[in-house]
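Handoff note, outgoing to incoming analyst
You'll be picking up this chain. Sequence as last confirmed:
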Amino acid sequence: MTKLYYSPGSCALGIHIILEEIGKPYELALVNTRENEQNQPAYLAINPKAKVPALDIGAGKVLTQWPAIAQYLAMSHPEAKLWPTGLVESARCAEAVDYICGSVHPMGFTRQYRAGNFAANEADQPRVIAQAKEFATKAFEILDAQWGEKPWFLETGYSVADAALFFVTYWATRRSGMTLPPKLARHLDAMLARPAVQRMLAQEKLAA
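Most recent structure output, in case you need it:
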């Protein structure tokens, strides 16, 4: 059975949503990052990168990195329609996930929550946090301006890109006290109304 290694409230919550959307049995394996379990030998044997999420897909195979895990889950469960099939549409999905996971997440939020990793001098850390919030704000403005009238991230409908966007907008509003532009705020509300998201939040004991 598929097993998701996760830490509550981490970016793994987006993968957790995808698993709930697919609706097939899976297991959850808690990695207590507050206790530094991601850097202990037991977890490093699973994912030497010391990060969550990681996905055990059976037969001794483990996938790491959010975009790869999301694409695998979507493509191995085409009936869930979480990854577009057209060439351009598929590229748009990859483009969205890459931007969120490769830019918005590390530049806009990792630097907020782990400022000490980027400024050894404690006096410089507020500047790092402010720069991160500025980056996230600009990224959200870009996405909002490009949104159009569609209900979900992609023109083709609900996809893994929505799960990716959710984890950063959830962090922005629940952890960082940021205000989202209007279309992204509506998207966050629409995500919170989805049963799969509600189940994920309940399992991870997170506030809606």
